[in-house]
Amino acid sequence: MRNHWSTAAMVVALCVGAHAPAWAHHSFAAEFDVNKPVTLMGTVTKLAWTNPHAHIYMDVKDASGKAVPWDLELGSPNALIRRGWSGRTLKAGDVITVSGYLAKDGSHLANARSVTLSDGRTVFAGSSLDAGSAQ
Amino acid sequence: MYRVHDRLIRLCAVVSILALCAAVPASAQSSGSRGTLTGTVLDPVGKPAGKVTVQAQSADGQTTQRATTETTGRYVIGGLPFGVYNVTVTVPGLKAFERKGVSVQAASTSLDIRLEEGSQLSTLGEDPLGIAADRARRAPPSGPTPRTADGKPDFSGVWWAPTVVDPGKPEWLPDAQQVAARRQANNRKDSPQVRCLPSAVLRRGPLVQFVQSKEVLIEITDDDSPGFHQIYLARSHPKEQDPLWYGDSVARWDGDTLVVDRNNFLDEVWLDQDAHPHSDKLHVIERYRRRDLGHMDVEITVDDPGVLARPWTFTRASELAPKEEIREFICNENNSDLPHLIDK
Predict the structure, then answer these.
(1) Closest partner residue to B43 among A14, A81, A129, by Cβ?
(2) Angle between helix A2-19 and helix B128-136 axes, rounded to 10 deg
(3) Does residue A2 register a pLDDT over 50?
(4) pTM
């Protein structure tokens, strides 16, 4: 029994390790701070479907009501396309809420971990960590 | 007759006791009681983590039980023999969770779990959902190894990034270890890839395509720049050549195995994803075998006495991705990260 489970555990470990992502274009720790989560609500000005990363550019109102441009970094289009998304998934004028992590250099840049439309629909991501269908 | 019957009864009793002993895990035999481990799993931003596997393994390794979280993140592992457990949750793309010494001594024990980001963070497209989605798309076809007109195995096709089967045991020289440690401590800020130059010698994927002819095998990858290099099948290494980012790659057939020989690498290219350097003595031998239509195995030997005490051999395997296409990757299109990268 022990051998059985040990083998099973090893297989699981191998599978998990095997599918863990190799860091891609750059190290995230070089750019973003895992200790600085942020949630931003604003209006999309552009979805840049570009390499090495797609970007959402959006205006976020500050405390005085002034629109401040923000840059939200996504993965590469290749990776996003495999989830069923495209450069038309978001359009200028969409009001969205983005959760992610702030850039370390203090600029108005963050990585985007989840994107939610104003009607509550989640774009680009879900809350379940399973394979789920593309949204 | 009576004595035979008596012996039969005793034998049955012994067998029954033995069967009971075998059926009850050792950790439960001392108490004979069982409990339930329950709780909620949240992802790094506090949302419920659905369809995540939570594993509880007894400290003695005799009992292992798993449960899958509901969409609310709730999990229930019932029927655990009283004892001490090691609870783990592994989600690709996130930091593995492990809590040792979880004591189950009552009818219900509560353990809430908050998953944390890994070094990758969960940027969309490279997040656990994306990783899981890629995994779900893997369905390698079955069938015999395809062959070219001259009877050689044909490696042509799009393949998922190879996965390590046997990592081997690289014995890095101290100088190479120091360089790798320094590069990692600097968040790999100075990696060529950051500047849209080719990635490490040993890196492949997420998708790789082979296009094979009699004279050349072209290898294309979907997030590298320029994203392709040639492996020549009908020539040997030139006697004199200026160094190359991907090295000079030639190949010969050893039966059904294609043996690729790579040397002459540019100093600037990194050796692997752990940021190790290489020397001008770097020599890589890759032995490719397409075991059937859907699977490819590769044994890789890295021989570089400038950074390794002895040659390092490891193995990887790939699955065919017949429904995938490699889209262009023009890295310099919008490489806006550079000004924001911080090394410490």
Answers:
(1) A129
(2) 110
(3) no
(4) 0.76
Identify from A55, A130, A133 which residue to disrupt to test chain B contact, counting B C-beta atoms within 10 A and taking the largest count: A130
Residue of B nearest to A109 (CA): B340
Reported as a single tens digit per residue, the pLDDT across B193-242 is 989 999 999 998 889 999 999 999 999 998 888 889 999 999 999 999 89
How is residue B195 written in tokens? 């500047």
Cα(B164)–Cα(B298) distance, rounded to whole angstroms? 9
| Torsions phi, psi for A14 (to 5 deg) | -65, -45
Rounded Cα distance between B134 and B126, Å, is: 10
CB atoms within 10 A of CB B86: 16
Mean pLDDT for the stretch of residues A47-62: 95
Spans in chain B with pLDDT lower than 70: 1-32, 119-122
Query: If you search the block for the tokens 């022990």, which residue do you land on?
Result: A2
| pLDDT tens, position by position, A60-100 | 999 999 999 999 999 888 888 887 788 998 999 999 999 88
- With CA atoms as reference, report the closest residue to B37 among B70, B67, B73, B72: B67
Sign, CA dihedral A134-A55-B192-B308, equals: negative
* Distance (Å) from the alpha carbon of B262 to chain A's nearest alpha carbon: 22
DSSP line for B145-187: PPB-TTS-B---EEEEPPEEEE-----B-HHHHHHHHHHHHTT
Give the closest residue to B123 by CA, choosing from A16, A102, A49: A102
- Inter-chain residue contact A82 with B130, CB threshold 8 Å: yes
In angstroms, the first-to-last Cα distance of chain A is 42
How far is residue B342's CA from residue A35's CA, in Å, rounded to a whole number? 15
Q: What is the pLDDT of residue B312?
A: 98
State which H helix or E strand residue B68 sits in: strand B64-68
Q: Which residues of A81-110 are buried (b: 16+ CB within 10 A; e: fewer)?
A: bbbebeeebbeeebebebbbbbbbeeeebb
User: What is the spatial distance between Cα B261 and Cα A100, in angstroms, rounded to a whole number?
Assistant: 44
